[in-house]
Each structure stands twice: as C-alpha cells, then as structure tokens.
C-alpha cells in the first residue's frame, strides 16, 4: 500500500474556517449596486384556470421597477426530460398547485415588492382538484395535464426472470403494503437567486445554490432563449442541496427576467414557507409487494407495485421511480423480479429529487419485509441478508458489473460493533436493534457532462491554481480536490488555490449528481495533477541530471529520492518552462466507461454498464421506545459505508453523521402535512427535523474496499448508508416493541395506538 | 496576402458599448458589504523628520475602524529596482515631499475618515529642502537619502565611437540648451484602490487601475509579506494609465493594511489634487547637447548631458533616463555618441513613468536641434532626417537588429500629405509647419514576465472562452485579443468570452508595459487560437473524412474548403473530443528572442537584442501663431505610424488621435507649476489639457511594414508617433515665427515675450 501524505488523512476542510467565521459568501451575502428585491405572487388554488391578471396598480406603485407574468416569458416549457417538459416559467393558462408562481415583481426594497403583490388582481376559475394519487389515476379523475390521460406522469415496468416461476419456487411468500411520507430537504439556506443583466453586453450573470452551474446555465439558456455564452453562473457558498438544488427554479427565471426588464440586478429570496411549498418535495410512495423465499432464506421472488404522488409537474419524476431499481439489483440477488411503478400527477406541490431519490421509500419496504420473512423462516436479519447480497465481480441483470463490493464487510462489522445478533435475539425491556443495508450508483449517463475535466496552472512562486467544475454543497468536495492536487504535487493545501463551479472559468463537470463527484471529478483532478507532476519532473530531471523515475515532488520542490538535498524549487522549474517556451499547465479528464447510453431505465432490457461503480452501506440502529407515549429514542447508530478509500476520513465521517440524522428524521418525525393541497406545517416548529438532543451515539465504520477505477480506490461516501439507516431504525422499533409500523414516519401516535390496540 | 475576416477590419471595441452606457465597472463602481472608506494624511513639509505621531484621538472617533502609521507596516522599502528600494509603505523616519503618505485611516464613511485625519497630531522637525536638481547634486546640498551622496539617484553613461573624432569630423557643430516641464498623466479615472481581506482564509483580494495585475500582486506580496497565492488582483475597467499605473501605490498598501486590520473591505479614492501631487509625475529634464554634422548633413557627433529632476524617490527613474537612448540609436545613425544622464533626488513629488518615458524630453531637444542644424547646412528638415535615419535590417550599436522599418515611409507620407516641404520653404503669414520622427521598442526583458501565455476553452455550444493576462487601459487590447481568436476560429466576436487581467484566472503576461501587448501578448493569443483550431480540424477530418489541410473553420462549424455544405458544427467536435477522452483546450505562448538579459542599460556595452522589434512614427504639424498674444493654434496634424499591420484600423486611429493630443498638450500648454515643493495648479482649470476646441484636423496615416515576427506582422501602434508629434509642433512654431523656444511648454507668454524682445 502506498504511503500518502495528504489523501487518506484527517484534514479540516478548506471552507470550514470561513464558514465558522462568517466570511463565506452565500448568494444572499452578495449585494450589487442598484440591486432590486424580487417577490413572487403564488396561486392560492390547487387547480384553476387563469382568466385574467391585472398588474397595472402594482406597476404604478412607487419603487416598483418591473412586473412580469407568464406572458412576459418566452413561453417555453421546461423540465429535465426533453420529451416531458410540462411547466411554464410562470403559470400561463392554468395553475396546478397551491404555491405555483403566477406573477413576479422587482422593487427597491422587499416591503415595496410585498406591497406590490397585494395590488395585483388575478381572476381564477377554480377547477376540480385531485390530491390522492390512487384517485388521480382512476378513470374520470380531473385531468391536470392535457398530455397525460389518467394523470400518469411516468410509468416503469422492469421484469427479470419469471414471477410465476418465482411464486412456485417460494416456500414462504410475504404480501405487504407500505406507505412513505412527503418530505422537505430542509436545506438551512432558503432558496435565493441573484441575477445581474448588462444591457450593453447582453450578458446575464447569476448566483444561486445549485448542484451544477452548467445545468443551470444550459437550462436558463434553453428557456430564456439566450445564447449559452451570454449566461454565466458564478460560484457562491451553498447551504445544502440534498437533491433539492438539481433543477432550474422559477426564482432563477424570475430574477433573470426581472433583471432584463429593469436593467438592474435583482435578488429573490424565498421565505421558509416558500421553500417548503414551492421548491421540490420528496415523493410519497404507496407500495404493495410480494416477496418470496425458499426455506433456507434464499430469495426467489419480488413483485412490487409502486404508486408515487408526483404532484403538479414532471420534475425529475422519471428518475425517482426508475433509478431505485438499480439499487435493488445491485444489493440483492433476486432471480424473479417484477418492478412496476407509476408516478401520478396530482394537485399537490411538485415532487422531485431528494437524497436517495426514491431508494429510501423502496428500501423501507424491502428491508422491513426481509425482516418479516426472516422471522417466518426463523433466520436472523443478518443471516438472510448475507445469504442474498450481491458479490464482488457479479454481473447484474441490467448488464452492469460490480467491480468492487464491501457490502458483506459493512453488514458484518456494523452487526459486530453493534452486537446486533445477541441484542436482536434478546431485546432488553423497551429496547431493540435493527439492521439494514443498501448500495449506490457512482455516476450515471449525463450526455455531454458524463465526464469531468480539470486543469492546474502555477504562479511565479510555483504555487498552484486548480480549475474544476465541481460544486460543493457542503460535502467537502472542494477540499477533496485540493487534497488530491496536494498529494500529487507534494504541496501543502495552503499552496493551492481553487477555482470551481463557474461556467466561464471551470471546465465541464457532471456536477454533484448521481454520486459522481468522488469517482469522476476527483479522478479528473488526479489526472490533471499527475499531468502537471510529469511535466515538472521532466524539467527537474534535466536540471538535476537524474532519471525522472528517481525524482519526487515535495515542499514546493523536486528532489532526488533519498537525497532531498539534491533539489530544485518548483518555482525555478516553472520559470525554466517559460524560458523553454512551454509553460506548465496540467490537464486531466475522466469519463467512466458506460455501456448504458440511454437516458433512463424504462424496462428490463440489458443496458450494459449503467454506472462507474457501486458503493455500499449497512447500518445497525439501537432504539428505546416508551410504551406509554410511543416516543422513540434512537440510542446508537453503527453506520458502515464502503467508500472504497476515505480521501478524508473526517469528511467521510461527517457525511456518515449527516446521513444517519437524515434517516433519523425520515424514520420517526419528518412529514409534510397536507390538507386540500395546502402545506400545513411549513416551518421548523411543526415540521420536526432532528435537533441536538435527538442525536444518538454515532459509530462511523469506514470500509475501504478499493475500487479498481476510483481515485486511490475511492467511491461515493455515505449515500448508500443514508438509505440503510432508515429501515434499520424501523426494524429496531419492531424489534423493541414487537410492532411493525408500515407507514413513515413511525410517530409516537402510531406506536401508542398500535400498543393500545394490541393490549386490548 | 491572406484575406482576413476579422483582423485588419474596422470593428467597434467590445467594451465601447458598456462604457458608453455606463455599465462598465471601474474600481470605484465596486461596492462590497460592510466596506469602509479610507483616507490618507499627507506631509505638509517638503523635507522633515517625523518626531511623533499621536493617533489616539482619531482612533477614539466614532465610526473609525482602523488607523495605521509606518510602524504598522512590515517596515519594508519598495521600488521597481531591487537594489534601489528607497520608499517606505508609509513614511517612518522622514518625509521627503509635500504630499507624502504619513497616516492612513478607515472609517464608516468618507466624512468620518476626513474628520479623523484632522484629529491626528504629527510632530515634524523641518529640514532644509532642495528643489532644483542642479543645486541638489552640488557638494553640500541637503542630503535627502542616506544612501545617495550628492542626491544622485541614478547615473547613466553610454558611449559609442569617439566624440573627439566626431568633433574633428564635423563641419558644423551645434551647442544648445533645452528644458522640459513637469507633467501629470491626467488619467480621467483618479487613482482608487479597493482591498478585501478575509481573516478566515487569510486571502487578500484587490481591485485598482493597473498596467499588469501580476506586477501589483508580486509587489504587494513582497512588501506586505503575504504569500503570492494569498493575494488576488481582480479585473476592473481602467480609465487610462499612460505609464502612471505601472507601480504599486501607497493607496494599495494602505487599503490592504486597513482591510487586514479592520477585517472589512476598504476603498481609498484619491482626490484630483492627490492624483496631481502624490501619484507619479513626468520627469522634467535639463539638456545640454552638442550635435555635429558634415556639410552634406550626415550626422557625425552627438554629445548629450541630461539632468533629470527625479523628485523624492527612485520610482522607475533608472528606466526614464536610460531607455531613451534605445530610441535614439534606433532612429538615427550617429557614429560618435556620448550620452550622459543623471537623475537627481529633490524634495519635489516623485517622478516616474509616463507615456514615452523620457523619450519626448530627449526628442524635443534632438528634433529641434536637427532643424537648426539643417538650416545652417541649408538642408530642409525632411532631407536631413532621411539622410540619417536607421534602415531596415540594420544592426544597432547595442547589438539589436531592426527587423522591420517603415520610418522612411512614415516621414515621406506625412511630409507629402502635409505638403511639408513647400509649406516649410514658404511659410504663409503666422503659419508654419514642422516635422519630427521617432522609433519605439516593442517589449523588453521583464524576467519571468517577458513572455505571454493564452488559453482557449469551449462551452457545450462550441462557443469559446479566451484566457489572457492582458490588461486593457483603454487602448483596445481586449478587443484585439478577441478579434484574433475570432479570426483563427472562424467565429463571431460575439461567440467569444474573454477572461483577462486576473492573477488567479489569467496566465502570466508582461502587462501593458514597453509597448509589448500587440507584439507579445497578441502573438500568444494567436498561438492558442491556432492550437485549438488544429485540434478542431483534426477532429473534423475524421468525421468529414477529409485531409486536415482541406478543412476550414467558419460560422461555428468546420467545413471542407469550397464545399461549405460538407460541414460539422464545432459544438459536435467539442462533444466528440469529450467522448474521445481529450477535451479541446488551446494553449499558446510567445516570448521574443532577447539577447539582452540584464535589467536596464547602464553603459554602452553591446547587449544583443534588447526588444522584440521596433515600431516607427513621423509627424507633420501645421500651426498658426498670433503674434500679439503668442497664442498657438495647431491647425493640422499628419500623423504616420508604422504599426506593421493594423489589427483594428479604427483602434489604431484612436491611438493616433490620443497621441497627437497628448503631444499637443505637452508642446503648448501642460505644466505642473511648483513653488517650494508645492503643486500650485492641481486641477483641470489651472493645469490645461487640450479640450475639444483645441483639437486640430488629425490625418492618421497607417504604415503597414509587416514585421516577420509580429502577429499578422503587427507591432506597437502610435507610441512612436506620440513622441514625433511633440517636436513637430515645436518646429512648426519656429517655422511660423522664426523664433526657437527651447523650453516646454511653448506658452503664449514665452512666444509673446520673445517677439517683443526681437522687435525691439
């Protein structure tokens, strides 16, 4: 094993100090001269026709500089999936949910903008709404989109093997029904978009939280009908994404259009209420499954029917209901499988991408069922999982190869450290343990942006400047890139400046999607570093009259291995390169070999390699349940993640902590409560995310099953775990109480009610 | 001759619209949150010892956030020439001129900052000052710097041939005395510096007008003792430089140190008065010369003694008195020459670089003397010049080769168009004509920054982003770079975005010094464009199955010459490159072959090639003089510049216009009036730059003597002319009046006085 100086080390993130001291610039910290404040008027109806909009009085209000409606937009529809674009920049003909954007205003200050909204008269003709996805897909339900009969937004059917054969071969068959909740990402940074349009150069500059500046740039170019070269997305610090910053937002359109109309910069900041109701939410799923196994616990059948409530528009719905299948086949070997999913349009807020993107919903059902099945077969939950998990080197039904797999180690180590098997067999009073596991793709086909590029240049002192398109939403991506350049260039991270997430300055990158940053973007940075390193060593070998293979880089110098005295400063090599007429610029590119060229999985056909590689996670939870109140306290979490190699163990642990808490909230407290299309708990008092006092003892377990293609063997960290932990908690509650709650979140009310019923 | 699509064309500059519409961002247009305003307390004494500074009361004033004196600086001295660093960031022991920086303050607003200055008590012990450079270099004069006996700041002696031999060979010898004035650059943008220091990352960001961000970065790093990687100079629009933005400024130090002390951004904007007295001024020269020639007008001798008043500090003084020699030898062939120059320290404001950098002063004397000599020899001014000018291909005494030379064409065409010879022989009443010429170096040894690098990347649409370190002070450099990339990539200038003048983003560049931008930086951009073009054509040749040499780029596509139908969009080539795993990045570098490795010319030793190439200019002026008032009206200017090739004729003409007016002011009206070290006319009412009504009919003449190494044959535009025009006006006044005024400016008072004396 090579001995590393920078990677694999516990290093404080390069952004932590500036965030702790408050000097990090989030979009809302950016103020431009003559900047206006924008506000958006939203639909009060879940489903209505727009008859007329009167904005005259608002336009006349002193301090108002621009007012726009759908008629002031290019009239384009937008959406991730070209063939399913269904949402206008601002509502034109109809509104389809409470909170939909209808009119936008820019004024000298927020108060004036708010006042202007009150002066706008919108006439609506209310239409029959539908909120229940099961109702929505029935014949004769109110039609939300002309293009979608029965309100079917997307439908997916994937079949492998033969379910009838599977039925015959199964000694035990479980039939269950599960439901999951609607959730909000709850990024601590409310959505904010700042646009600055220069009428002279006809260029638009924008700042906002995102997962890729290039996705924003392209989307805005398409919908605003502005050439790509005239739109620049600039870097700002980002206060969390969790999938919720994937798409272009109406706030982006409105800020841009208002700036173009007023000729002044415009900032729109969402209130927390708007962030809850009018940014994307997590799909609630209704799941019916049949799971079959042989006596020995070998899985023989999985038949699963999913109806997901997609809300008013398409968003990333096709991914949300199709991609989870990929995590199913890469975790468990199931010979006969039928996976059917329908995403229904309803008049609820729009559901899109959220950390896990459908997989949590699926795995709540799968992992709960596995435990129930195990019990019937008198196996313990660990045994049944170990018997059925995918192995390293295995080729999956989709055609993907599992090149590296530490799933078994994840399961065994989390179980051992959590003393799972003994505790599970003998749950002490009110206490119980549960286990879960999962896998995760690393990178996906993104067309133009499937690969990542990086460059490194040097200043006169031989210090480096690294260019990457990577976006850091808080995971520590930026630090990781600098660490890798430090490792290869033998420089302190202090000596490397980073230029990232700027469409004008950064080379193309997939962005922080599909867990590709470590596997793909970091590989590109490593390649660029090695390229620069090679050039420096060649230059040094001339000066030091040594064979390149005998030369190393360290302390801003190149030196002969073993004899650091025979050294030359990188600064001098840089100068030498200038004098030789070929300045040093390191360039690197990485693109995973994907057989899968299509956009998304619609059916069971073999597609070849669909992802760069797979990462894995397993979790054991220990809980205590108060039988009177039903209150659940998660006491301990043993969280194992196979990240291939931990480039910064501290950062990986941070990701593990975050994933544990993300699951904790989903498992026992988080839920958006709706009534008639209206969000009832759009604040942090009524929508309960875990707080400090809820945090359990978290025991992170880093499994390093090096991937042959990952940078230093590294893969995605803690998203696989971020799924496994949720069912682990659900299973622990069942183990503690003997009660199996099949709908999320598992609230005190549900538990107390069950106990009451059971005791009577 | 190749037919060009973009270069050689009259194209409006890419920055003109944003400047006309007011959206261009000059440093003073940048406002940062929590920004403070800085002010500087200056010395009221020309020469004094600082006994004590009491800043307590200022620090206690509400709204004051930081106060610094020389003791709060790292105590470094700064200066262009390492061995002659003589100026503290803020005065510590002594002050040496009226206006020297003593204390700096940052407060919430300008008013409070000004109030704070009044509360600072500085105790001085006045010392004997000296203002006259001839006095200053005498034994026993007050000593201004401990390191400089007799107040000699720099001394240069260059000898070629044998002046005694020259004396013998001369049939006529002229002995004359000339004096030139102290001038201000009068950039319309007063000096302003904005610093933003982040205590968390310990990084300093700065914006200010400059001629190279890298020079500012390095100078600040050295003097503030901050690593280069922690200082970033960012681009802002610049309102003129003319050599006056060459050096780091006390405003930069103060803004930086105040920001570091207060932890908030600090902006310091100079008043026009401060710009006059406390930024660099142009050296006034006292010149004694002996010029000898044979009967036929062949020059045989030049003996020249210069004493320049350098003011209180070194600044760029060594260049100011040495570099003019280079323009002497590259314009006229003089076998025996002795060039001696002394720069004296005085207690006047600091004299540094200004457009022409000493050459105007020298050429006022040379060209005036040539005319006088011609008269004695009964030759006309054109004849004597044509007889003695340097020829193409000639090797100069310094060892430099003149690779391209259009000087003869410049002289003949300006003379013909101005009907010089006939008008000169028969001056009509009160009217006269004059001629002058000069040469100019293109690039100089700048060590690390002698060469320039450029890069080009592409976005998903195949539009280009060009990275260059070039600075644009108003000449049109940015437009030139984009034009060249357009030419080579067959794209509209609209499709190319420019990233320039940012130390973090831009590759190294010499900056806008020594007239190197066209010859060096534009060559690098051309090389980068050709590199990208080659990659694109290789990719296209695979797709189009054609020989690369048969493929052209145009309209964002690659196509087969002659058959534009067989084409593929660049966008697709870019994507193809990604798929092949090697994204397209064009890189280019250019560095002139210089034999001259030393820092500056101290003596006559042969140094080899001292510059990339030489450009040339000649001018004819026609003036009318009112014999009563002595008022001179310049009627016509015929201004010829050999720029090799005009990349944008409109921009070259703009430069010619500017140069003509620059000379016009120097010739007849501009002069800083001093009394006891105090500037008496530090405003645009009393310091008279030409206004609209002063502008003559300007006839620009572009001579295109293509240089073998220049981009498309291009060289510097209009600086050579910007010297020639000054003596042309002086000579025209002499021709009109029969009076030879030998001190600048040639004011009405001087003329009227001479006429009065003559008529009595």
In short:
Chain A contains 19 helices and 32 strands. Chain A is an alpha+beta fold and 760 residues long.
**What structural class do helix, strand and pairing data of chain A support?**
alpha+beta
Unreliable spans of chain A are none
Give the CATH architecture of the largest domain in chain A.
Answer: 2-Layer Sandwich
Strand content of chain A: 25-35%
Strand count, sense and barrel status of the largest sheet of chain A are: 7 strands, mixed
Task: Please describe the structure with a list of short key phrases separated by commas or semicolons.
homodimer; alpha+beta; Aldehyde Oxidoreductase, domain 4; 3 domains; 5-stranded mixed β-sheet; 19 helices
What does this protein structure show overall?
The structure is a homodimer of 760-residue chains. Chain A contains 19 helices and 32 strands. The first copy, chain A, folds into three domains: 16-23 and 447-590, Aldehyde oxidase/xanthine dehydrogenase, molybdopterin binding domain (Aldehyde Oxidoreductase, domain 4); 31-127 and 189-241 and 245-277, Aldehyde Oxidoreductase, domain 3; 281-445 and 597-759, Aldehyde Oxidoreductase, domain 4, CATH 3.30.365. Chain A has a seven-stranded mixed sheet, sandwiched between helices. Chain A is of the alpha+beta class. Chain A is globular and about 85 Å long. Chains A and B meet through helix 1, helix 6, strand 21, strand 23 and helix 16 of A and helix 1, helix 6, strand 21, strand 23 and helix 16 of B.
């Amino acid at each position: 094993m090579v001995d590393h100086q920078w990677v694999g080390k516990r290093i404080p993130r390069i952004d932590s100090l500036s965030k702790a001291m408050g000097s990090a610039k989030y979009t809302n910290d950016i103020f431009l001269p003559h900047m206006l404040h924008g506000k958006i008027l939203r639909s009060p109806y879940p489903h209505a026709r727009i008859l007329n909009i009167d904005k005259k009085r608002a336009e006349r209000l002193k301090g108002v500089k621009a007012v726009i409606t759908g008629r002031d937009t290019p009239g384009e529809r937008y959406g991730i999936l070209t063939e399913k674009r269904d949402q206008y920049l601002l509502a034109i003909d109809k509104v389809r949910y409470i909170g939909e954007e209808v009119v936008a205003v820019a004024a000298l200050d927020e108060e004036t903008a708010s006042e202007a909204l009150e002066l706008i008269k919108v006439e609506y003709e209310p239409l029959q709404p539908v909120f229940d996805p099961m109702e929505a897909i029935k014949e004769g339900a109110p039609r939300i989109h002309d293009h979608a009969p029965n309100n079917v937004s997307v439908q997916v059917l994937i079949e492998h093997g033969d379910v009838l054969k599977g039925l015959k071969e199964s000694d035990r068959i479980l039939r269950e029904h599960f439901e999951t909740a609607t959730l909000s990402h709850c990024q601590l940074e409310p959505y904010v978009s700042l646009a600055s349009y220069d009428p002279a150069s006809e260029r638009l500059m924008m700042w906002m939280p995102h997962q890729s500046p290039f996705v924003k740039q392209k989307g805005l170019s398409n919908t605003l009908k502005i050439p790509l070269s005239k739109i620049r997305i600039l870097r700002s610090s980002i206060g969390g994404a969790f999938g919720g910053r994937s798409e272009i937002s109406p706030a982006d359109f409105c800020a841009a259009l208002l700036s173009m109309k007023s000729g002044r910069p415009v900032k729109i900041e969402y209130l927390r209420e708007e962030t809850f109701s009018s940014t994307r939410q997590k799909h609630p799923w209704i799941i019916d499954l049949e799971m079959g196994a042989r006596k020995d616990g070998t899985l023989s059948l999985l038949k699963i029917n999913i109806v997901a409530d997609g809300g008013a528009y398409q968003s990333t719905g096709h991914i949300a209901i199709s991609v989870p299948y990929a995590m199913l086949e890469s975790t468990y070997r199931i010979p006969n499988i039928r996976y059917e999913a329908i995403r229904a349009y309803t008049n609820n807020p729009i559901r899109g991408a959220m950390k896990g993107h459908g997989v949590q919903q699926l795995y709540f059902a799968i992992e709960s069922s596995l435990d129930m099945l195990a019990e019937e077969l008198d196996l313990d939950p660990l045994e049944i999982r170990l018997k059925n998990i995918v192995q390293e080197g295995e080729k999956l039904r989709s055609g993907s190869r599992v090149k590296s797999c530490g799933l078994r180690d994840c399961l065994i180590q989390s179980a051992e450290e959590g003393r799972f098997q003994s505790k599970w067999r003998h749950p002490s009073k009110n206490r119980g343990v549960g286990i879960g596991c999962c896998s995760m793709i690393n990178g996906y086909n993104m067309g133009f942006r499937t690969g990542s590029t990086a460059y490194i240049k040097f200043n006169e002192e031989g210090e480096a400047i690294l260019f990457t398109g990577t976006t850091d939403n808080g995971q520590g991506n930026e630090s990781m890139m600098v660490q890798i350049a430090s490792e290869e260039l033998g420089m302190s991270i202090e000596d490397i400046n980073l230029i990232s997430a700027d469409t004008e300055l950064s080379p193309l990158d997939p962005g922080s999607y599909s867990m590709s940053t470590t596997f793909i973007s970091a590989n590109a940075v490593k390649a660029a570093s090695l390229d620069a390193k090679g050039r420096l060593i060649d230059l040094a070998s001339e000066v030091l009259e040594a064979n390149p293979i005998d030369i190393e880089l360290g302390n801003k110098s190149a030196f002969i291995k073993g004899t650091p005295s025979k050294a030359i400063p990188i600064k001098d090599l840089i100068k030498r390169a200038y004098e030789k007429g070929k300045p040093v610029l390191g360039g690197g590119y990485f693109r995973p070999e994907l057989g899968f060229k299509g956009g998304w999985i619609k059916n069971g056909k073999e597609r070849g390699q669909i992802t760069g590689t797979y990462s894995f996670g397993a979790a054991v939870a220990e809980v205590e349940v108060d039988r009177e109140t039903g209150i659940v306290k998660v006491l301990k979490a043993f969280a194992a993640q196979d990240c291939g190699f931990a480039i910064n163990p501290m950062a990986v642990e941070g990701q593990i902590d975050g994933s544990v808490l993300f699951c904790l909230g989903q498992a026992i407290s988080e839920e958006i409560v709706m009534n008639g299309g209206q969000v009832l708990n759009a604040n942090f008092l009524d929508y309960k995310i875990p707080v400090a006092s809820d945090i359990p003892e978290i025991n992170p377990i880093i499994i390093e099953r090096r991937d042959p293609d990952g940078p230093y063997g590294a893969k995605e960290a803690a998203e696989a775990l971020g799924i496994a932990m949720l069912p682990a908690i659900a299973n622990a509650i069942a183990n503690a109480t003997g009660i199996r709650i099949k709908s999320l979140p598992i609230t005190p009310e549900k538990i107390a009610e069950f106990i009451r019923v059971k005791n009577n």
